[in-house]
Design brief:
The structure is a homodimer.
Chain A: H1 6-13, H2 17-24, H3 32-44, H4 51-58, E1 63-68, H5 74-88, E2 93-98, H6 103-113, E3 120-123, H7 133-140, E4 145-148, E5 159-162, H8 164-177, E6 183-187, H9 193-208, E7 218-220, H10 225-236, E8 244-247, H11 252-262, E9 272-276, E10 290-293, H12 296-311, H13 318-321, E11 322-325, E12 328-330
Parallel strand pairs in A: 1-2, 1-3, 3-4, 4-5, 5-11, 6-7, 6-8, 8-9, 9-10
Antiparallel strand pairs in A: 10-12
The first copy, chain A, binds a DNA duplex through residues 5-7, 15-19, 21-22, 25, 29-31, 34, 49-50, 52-59, 116.
Keywords (chains A, B): DNA-binding, Transcription, Transcription regulation
Domain HTH lacI-type (chains A, B): 4-58
InterPro entries (chains A, B): HTH_LacI (IPR000843), LacI/GalR-like_sensor (IPR046335), Lambda_DNA-bd_dom_sf (IPR010982), Peripla_BP_I (IPR028082)
Chain lengths: 340, 340
DNA sequence: CTGAAAGCGCTAACAC
DNA sequence: GTGTTAGCGCTTTCAG
């Protein structure tokens, strides 16, 4: 019972290939009786159509690529859930590609993707990515691309983002309201859309509250955890040490907590912290962590839905071109003493 | 310049299809000069072979399926990194399937996979899975399957696991050494290989230290976080409340910390906790969390390597059939007051 | 209502 | 060294 294909079914039933094929696809051309016979045997023999033959013929693979910087990060892993939720019912399969935050890796992946292996791409670019040619090339081949979270603004593809600038503004304003006057911003890239936006929101908030923007308070972290730890420690050892921190990425949570502990700085008394993070565990840290929680699941879901629309050749509305799903500032103890 | 295929290249170069094909695959039959011409044009036109045509022909897709309960879990997301690392160099693509801990979902996925979409499968079964027929069916179709972490012992497929029983034993013995006499075990399934093993190790340790095994101390948690919280709280409110906990799964960390806090129980003074977890953030919890850290990356990598071996028809050695990579007990404050 | 045949893009016998 | 051809499994005109 190996390799059951349409030919085998046809032979067994004394029908032609095309009749069987049509019966299986429930064509109106085929009589109910024949359909029943075909379906019965197909079920009995456990016939499963060969995905590649269909793909080759129809030039659609029912695969979508999800290109991510990394997967061991709660934002991205939750986003994958959203993507999967949106896509499963439509019969699409999710191929995960990891760039490991490398531009070269990203370019290689997008190249590989041109093999027709996938029908469309969900993309969140690496922190190194500034050039857009590799994505443009894919789009030129009519492979639908939808950006989510980390976008390339100049490209004409739908973008699903959160309100990075606004939420960084809110977080910064919150720290100011809590009495901070020397607030640091920790980014992970100077080019990345989300980091620029968040930094812009941070700077705007300082400006609106008549606080100076100091270069010394804006740190760009690396992918090297140990090095980041040194950078943050140095920041917190300065004479005019920051009394507030807006960290733009989850990975830095551990770094800041450890640095504070080593330097015997108390949170929130000496330093107040807010962090872009989706870690559920934020609530049980001590102090519990004030987070800007991104709508990871919703963003993944929305991005996948727009992509599916494109794959189904449905017209995109203006709303689909840029979807902004707000993040939520959840104030906890790390930024607010009075918080219970 | 759309749809560059071999035919187009052949036409342009006044060569036949097969000559071009052979040239691109660097066949010894083709002259160096021709190869050069072909390669030059292929590069210029940015020719990328159609993955489906090759797959259909050669009956290999260069895709592997990774079937997981969930992805928003540090063990699995790190394991994906290991898988990706092992597989990327070999040119394989990773398709992620999520069962969401559902047997029905798992069975549906394995069915879908029979379409030939993938060359092999890495599988970590859902907590509901007890039946093996769905996996057996796949193996009967000669789709190579490799289990990792959560295995089905009765099936004749390679298994990559950690030393669940031993590490649970170590964790339990550690708690006993710290003075615990009423130790609870929190599982998530009565059937899952890892939970049975861990529970066995726990019971063995109790026995070896002349402590009774009480049914009341063995809790099976659900997928419902709120309900788990109630269960754990109730456990900790008992007259003879446990003074130690071995939690078999990362998700329960938050639950236990919150329950302790709400009940004003101090860790480690009132309750000592060890948890199977790969959370980096464990170090900055207060108290910092004693973990049994699983070799997630290594397990994913090893599993993928064995699968690739099978796909390449290389013989498996006895060692490949069952690989056990030890976990590490990292003692921190949640189980040991004297820990700095 | 059913069947014959072409063709998706590629590879590998098998000629020449 | 190069070319011709068959065929992987499926879908879809187009004929009957």
């Amino acid at each position: 019972m190996k390799n059951v294909n349409i030919r085998a079914l046809a032979r067994e039933l004394n029908l032609s290939l095309s009749t069987v094929s049509k019966a299986l696809r429930d064509s109106y051309e085929i009589s109910a009786a024949t359909k029943e016979r075909v379906r019965a045997l197909a079920a009995e023999w456990n016939y499963i159509p060969n995905a590649y033959a269909s793909s080759l013929r129809g030039r659609k693979s029912k695969n979508i690529a999800v290109v991510l910087p990394e997967v061991a990060d709660s934002f991205f892993s939750i986003a994958i859930n959203g993507i999967e939720a949106a896509v499963k019912a439509k019969g699409y399969h999710v191929i995960i590609y990891l760039t490991h935050e490398s531009y070269a890796g990203e370019a290689a992946i997008l190249k590989d993707i041109q093999s027709g292996r996938v029908d469309g791409v969900l993309l969140s670019v690496s922190r190194e990515t500034t050039d857009t040619a590799h994505v443009q090339e894919l789009m030129d081949k009519d492979v639908p691309v939808v950006f989510f979270d980390r976008v390339l603004e100049t490209l004409a593809a739908p973008k699903i983002v959160t309100d990075d600038a606004e939420s960084a503004y809110k977080a910064t304003a919150h720290l100011i309201a809590q009495g901070c006057r020397e607030i640091a911003y920790l980014g992970i890239s100077d080019s990345l859309s989300i980091c620029r936006q968040r930094m812009a929101g941070y700077m705007q908030a300082l400006g609106d509250h008549q606080l100076p923007v100091h270069q010394r308070n804006m740190l760009t972290c690396t992918t090297d955890g140990a090095r980041n730890f040194q950078l943050v420690k140095k920041l917190l050892q300065r004479t005019h040490r920051p009394d507030g921190i807006v960290a733009s990425v989850e990975k830095l949570t551990t770094t800041v907590y450890q640095a504070c502990r080593q330097l015997q700085l108390r949170m929130p008394e000496d330093v107040k912290l807010t962090c872009f993070s989706n870690l559920e565990i934020a609530t049980i840290l001590q102090p519990s962590l004030t987070t800007i929680t991104q709508p990871a699941f919703e963003m993944g879901k929305a991005a996948a839905e727009v992509l599916v629309k494109m794959l189904e050749k449905k017209p995109l509305t203006a709303k689909d071109i840029r979807i902004v799903i707000p993040s939520e500032l959840v104030v906890r103890e790390s930024s607010s003493r009075q918080h219970k």
